[in-house]
Every structure is written in C-alpha cells, then in structure tokens.
Amino acid sequence: MRKDGPRWWEYEIAGIITEPGSTVRCKTGTWRSVKPVLDRQKCTGCKRCWLFCPEGCIRFPNGKESISIDYDYCKGCGICAAECRLKAINLVSENLS
Which of 3, 11, 53, 79 is the most exposed place for a label (fewest CB within 10 A)? Predict the structure, then answer.
C-alpha cells in the first residue's frame, strides 16, 4: 500500500462478504418484545409452526410430536402463532424487568 493511501484496485469491492456470518454466534432473542408460548393441550404436532418459522427456533426434542421454542434465537415475529390453525401458540408480552 502506498503512503498516500491505497489504489483503487486495493479496496474491497462493496457488498462482498469476506467471512460468512452465523446467528449461532449472535443470540438474537433479546430483540423481541413479545414471545410465543405454546399451549401443549392444543398442540397436535402438525409442524406447521416449524415450517413457517424464519429463524428455525421451533424444535422437536427427541423426535416427539410436541414442540419446544428456542428463545435464545426467537425474535418474536409471531409467524408461528399466526400460522397455527389450532391457536396453540399465543404471543405474550416479554417481561422486561
């Protein structure tokens, strides 16, 4: 690099990602103001919530039909609740205290 600054060909091209990102390193659950809560009595394990979750926060522990929600990464978008035909997922206000 020259003393008076880099030449045009020495700059990174805008928009080029030099390292892939990963939300595994960045827990995004603290962003939400509401969180989805599952009513296990209503849930039939249809997996519709899992199919539509944009963050992949819906889990099926041990292959069971009942779901669990990974709150470390859930942003509270509410898509899972909106897509649940049985209304087994409700959005509740996040406790901010």
Answer: 3
